[in-house]
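Sample 1 of the test manifest.
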Amino acid sequence: MNIKMEQNEGVVVLFVREDRLDANNSEELKRELHRHFDSGKKNLIIDLAEIHFIDSSGLGALVSAYKNASLMHGTLKLSGLQSQVKSMFELTRLYRVFDIFSTVDDALLSYK
Amino acid sequence: MNNDITIEITMPATTCHLRLIGRISEILAEEIGNRDADRAALCELLSVVLTEGVVNVIKHACLSDLNNEIRIRISCSRGILIIMIYDNGIGFDLDAIPDPTFITPALTDKGRGIFILRSLMDMVSYRHANGSNVLEMTKKLDSEKITG
């Protein structure tokens, strides 16, 4: 999985450089996110701007990371949701769970 | 002019080919949809229900065994979309899969696939028939939005 990482004042930003997040690659993302939490990073932003298709497995990977963040008293925020991804968050009511921002910059501002 | 469409695909029981499912959805939506907006909505519907259906059959019925094959039959006739996904695996009980909880402390990372199928399609069933299992999903499409 192609993921670019940046750090900004204690916040890790992960840019997921894939067009799909589905049952074929969601486990890889899940492992990557858990690796960051295991290394002590507590505040993550995941930018999904390049993801144009997500399925229930992809949502599951994000839920798993959200739960991990909560356990560690950290945060997991999302940015850049495209149309189909937004629809899936609405259908599964996960938009009520996650803090979702239009852009990474907006998500970073929320930590100030 | 008869615009009824039926296509069949046979593929190994692996998630490696999910991108192909997405491409097939795009092509089908191009053929079935009347306007660009309708095609986009149809493509999204087809991509999601085909992916969720195929993944559930691969994981629960075929137990991700690459020696298993699944057969997908998609038809659109008189505004009715019918998707059949056949497998020869151990099968599963659709009704035994609970809806996901929406309460934050009890959130789980699994169980949303069948909920999504039931939300988007008019009918979802899984049964044993003629020597194999079949996941059947139907939906009446808005007649103004489809060709024919």
